[in-house]
Amino acid sequence: MKHQKLFDYEYNDLQYLNLSKKIFTNSKGELLTESYTYPADYSAVSPYNEMILRNRVSEVIEQKGTLLVPGSSVATEISKIKADFDFRSGTSLIEPVLVKKSFGGNTPENEVIINEHDDKGNILRTWSKSGINTVYIWGYGQRYPVAKIIINGKTHSQVMDDCNLSESIIN
Fold first, then answer.
1. Distance from the CA of 92 to the CA of which of 9, 120, 121, 156 falls in 20 to 30 A?
2. Among 132, 115, 112, which residue's Cα sits nearest to residue 124?
3. Contacts of 21 (CB under 8 A, 6+ apart)
4. How far apart are CA 46 and CA 127, in angstroms?
């Protein structure tokens, strides 16, 4: 017997045509739903209103998973991921600064803090809730990541110095 997975897709925002929900019924008859929100869902809040003006309308702000058991009328939240965006200090760039995650309807916890970006908005350094500090090296005109270095207590520039790297070498 061939197994087939069928998904239903909902697009509630006819202006931007972003996916609003993905719905799947598993073999137990449970309804699993993934719902998504975008900058347009927060249009009265800064910096999301500015993201809309800059046509950054397809970036997922929040993804939520729910489970509806047969015979129940209330869906249970099983997971939630939310990315917080903000203006980078001293510039007009809007960048992700924090990713929060929760499971089973619990209070969201900071999963990843984005500590540094370059002048193109690329992520240079992150810190995870498990205490891992990750530095990213970008090359080819700052278009592609060329290295991911897991190292505690070092900034991007310290890692570049320690590795004897300069922008001219990797670009």
1. 156
2. 115
3. 8, 9, 10, 12, 33, 34, 35, 36
4. 24
Cβ burial, residue 48 (10 Å; 0-12/13-18/19+): buried
CA 49 – CA 40 distance, rounded (Å): 7
Check whether 60 has a pLDDT greater than 60: yes
Cis peptide before 145 (omega within 30 of 0): no
Query: Cα–Cα distances in Å, from 54 out to 59, 61, 96?
Result: 12, 16, 15
- C-alpha 132/C-alpha 94 separation (Å) is 24
What confidence tens digit (pLDDT) does each residue in 18-49 have?
999 999 998 888 999 999 999 999 999 999 99
| SS3 readout for 80-138 | EEEEEEEECCCCCCEEEEEEEEEECCCCCEEEEEEEEECCCCCEEEEEECCCCEEEEEE
pLDDT in tens, 87-123: 987 888 999 999 999 999 999 999 999 999 998 889 9
